[in-house]
């Protein structure tokens, strides 16, 4: 099982990396960073900063649901750093003694409701999700975005069930952009990254349901110095600026 999961992660990393596809040379180091899907844009930008400042290090990024990635780490999949979109998921990794240092809080995020550009369903408020004929999407409850979405739906007494539960927040966003649903619950940063392809509606109580983002080097890393340097970059003034520009809250 462990060997199979390792293969899955390596294939995922190869598919998600925006670096070169050439095999690393004898003096090169490959740094594998597993991160929540909502970190796609910011971590891709930080990858270029890291590689510029650390010649010879090739950063491979793999984005997925925090729960999926944490499960792979616990099963021994090869990776150097993990960044999750909540504390609960990271706790499963620390409980398995799979981190090489205490996880660090580096950002926060909140949820919003997005609708396709033009708002074809005419949704004006979060309560409109209960209107007849309105379809909406959330993440699966195994993912941090799904946990927060459910809490906000319950808090606002929305009884209509989602059209579907998606694997991660990017999947929700993509389906809304493609007008495959009338609305979707996503992080504020994902709504911002989508630009004019979606419109945003505030969710009452979202400021009380804040997601903490945590990052840690992993015990199975064969490049712990490089892994610690990535964590330092994320926590640095430069890293915090990139995250802030994308709409993440300060840790």
What features would you describe in this structure?
The chain is an alpha/beta fold. It has helices spanning 2-16, 40-53, 66-74, 87-95, 144-155, 169-177, 188-193, 224-235, 237-245; strands at residues 29-36, 57-64, 81-84, 104-109, 111-116, 136-139, 164-166, 183-187, 198-201, 211-217. The chain has two domains: 2-108 and 212-245, Periplasmic binding protein-like II (D-Maltodextrin-Binding Protein, domain 2, 3-Layer(aba) Sandwich), CATH 3.40.190.10; 111-208, D-Maltodextrin-Binding Protein, domain 2 (3-Layer(aba) Sandwich). It has nine helices and ten strands. The strands form two sheets. It has a five-stranded mixed beta sheet. It starts with a helix and ends in a 6-residue tail after the last helix. The relative contact order is 0.20.
The description of the largest β-sheet is: 5 strands, mixed
Q: From the alpha-carbon coordinates, what is the Rg to the nearest angstrom?
A: 18 Å
Strand order of the largest sheet: 2-1-3-10-4
Q: SSE order in H/E notation?
A: HEHEHEHEEEHEHEHEEHH
**How many beta strands in the DSSP annotation?**
10
Oligomer: single chain
- Number of individual domains: 2
Percent range for β-strand residues: 15-25%
Using the 3D structure, state the CATH architecture of the largest domain: 3-Layer(aba) Sandwich
Unreliable parts: 1-26
Name the overall outline: elongated
Kindly report the average pLDDT value: 90
Number of helices: 9
């Amino acid at each position: 099982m462990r060997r199979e999961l390792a293969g899955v992660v390596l294939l995922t990393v190869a598919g998600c990396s925006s670096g070169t596809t050439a095999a690393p040379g004898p003096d090169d180091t490959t740094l594998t960073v597993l991160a929540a899907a909502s970190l796609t844009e910011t971590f891709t930008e930080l990858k270029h900063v890291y590689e510029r400042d650390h010649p010879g290090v090739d950063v491979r990024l793999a984005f997925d649901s925090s729960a999926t990635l944490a499960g792979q780490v616990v099963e021994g999949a090869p990776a150097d750093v993990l960044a999750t979109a909540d504390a609960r998921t990271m706790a499963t990794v620390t409980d398995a003694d799979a981190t090489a240092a205490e996880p660090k809080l580096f950002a926060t995020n909140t949820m919003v409701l997005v609708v396709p550009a033009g708002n074809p369903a005419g949704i004006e408020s979060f309560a409109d999700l209960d209107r007849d004929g309105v379809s909406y999407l959330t993440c699966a409850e195994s993912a941090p975005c799904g946990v927060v979405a459910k809490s906000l739906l319950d808090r606002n007494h929305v009884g209509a069930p989602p059209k579907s539960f998606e694997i991660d927040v990017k999947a929700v966003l993509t389906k809304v952009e493609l007008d495959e649903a009338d609305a979707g619950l996503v992080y504020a940063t994902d709504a911002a990254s989508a630009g004019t392809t979606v419109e945003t509606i505030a969710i009452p109580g979202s400021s009380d349901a804040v997601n903490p983002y945590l990052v840690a080097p992993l015990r199975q890393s064969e490049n712990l110095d490089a892994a610690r340097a990535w964590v330092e970059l994320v926590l640095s003034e430069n890293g915090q600026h990139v995250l802030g520009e994308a709409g993440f809250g300060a840790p």
